[in-house]
Design goal:
Structural class: mainly alpha
Number of strands: 8
Low-confidence stretches: 115-142, 336-343
Strand order of the largest sheet: 1-2-3
Length: about 475
Amino acid sequence: MAKYKLTWRAEQGGRWRKKYKGKSYYFRKRPDETKAESYSRCWKEWLTKRAEIDQQADADDPDRRAWNEMIRRTAAQMSELEDEDTPRNRRVWSGLFAQLSTYRYLIQEGVPFGFADDEERNADPSTLITVLGGGQALDIPDPPPPWEKAKRPETDEAKTISRNVERFMRRKRQQVERGQLSHGRFDALRCSLEAFAGHVGGSKEITAIDSPTLSAYRDHLEKQIDLDRLRPHSARDRLAAVKQFVRWAWGEELLGLPRILESREFSIALPEQAIATFTDPEVNRLLGAASDTTKLYVLLMLNCGMTQQDISDLRHDEVDWKRGRVTRKRSKTRKNGNGNGKGNTVPTVEYALWPETFRLLTKYRSAHATLALTNRKGEPLKAETIVNGRVKKLDSIRSAVLRVLRKLAKDKSAPLKIDKPLKLLRKTAASKLGSNPEFGRFAQHFLGHAPATVADRFYVTPNQNQFDAAVKWLGEQFETGS
């Protein structure tokens, strides 16, 4: 769900845009304002502007004048309701809101005033809002019932959920800049918290986040899963981001810690799934159709359990250019280790390169001062930067492999569609290694994972000769000529 009803444009010092009736209207951010502050002001300016536009349209269109008169009468009836919260007042208010929504829908559809039948006039507003994409097409307001409005105090914007999400993300951006948090994790947190703020109401005070609110949000995520609008793993990650944000807010003394956070029920159940991997025919076709550079990337993932980031970060001094070996820690644990306490437990792994892997790595060794491989411009193969609070990604490795996958899918003689993420190549190699009775014990070491037990950490050091034999066997399974 969108956080803002105006579109942010970063050019010219920052401005908000609203497209209405085929035209775009712009409202600039002032130099002394934050983005959120400017949104609040510009939204009010837009409402004033829209009223002027609609007023002019009403003057030119008798049907619009008639419908808007109905809207004004209905809104007046809503405002005259008593403040007392009673079942009768709730029923009356709901019926008037249904009329209000219906009239606006009919205006949008261009229905002549004299031809709307009773069914249209009394349509369920929730149905109309669904048809119109959540009401955004009409900017249908959601006015609170008078008994709630009477209780609602003025909200200090600095205490709103949205403002504190921004504060939280500024903190996370600092962690990214210090190498304690990945760009991918930063972007996942941003998306998750924007969705949360959009659902519960970003303009509410952060103290509104309590156990019932969090429970309702979990129920909302589960409903999205049931409707196939959200994958279970994505829903789980969104809930985890909310937990992290709420605990941060509690640490900042912005709210009390909701008890539901300690409940086992405050979670998203994940279905049992088999480990997804590439099949042997898929690996063989991929290697056979790839160019030499793309083939090198795939081989490094299979030979050394690398990800795109690992390949991009590979340094000259991590490669023994005479013996054909790579010795390094995974980029993920090396960069983020200080932040999660595991930096000193992950192993430095020495991989014996398969002959074809070493041949291609030597052939495409870069002239970069530190990086062993770069793109054609001499830049890192994978780079992530934060621009205007959003992560901008460049992944030459993924792009290269996707070109091969598209080529295989269009192969007229034997089309092959592979819809799997590249990280599964690393899992494919580890799973194959784990299936071997003799070499299976090296699977976690191959992946560069921290030892699982105290004994593994302090007393069991993998034998390098045996590990070399395991990696050599692995290459033979993929027919790499190792």
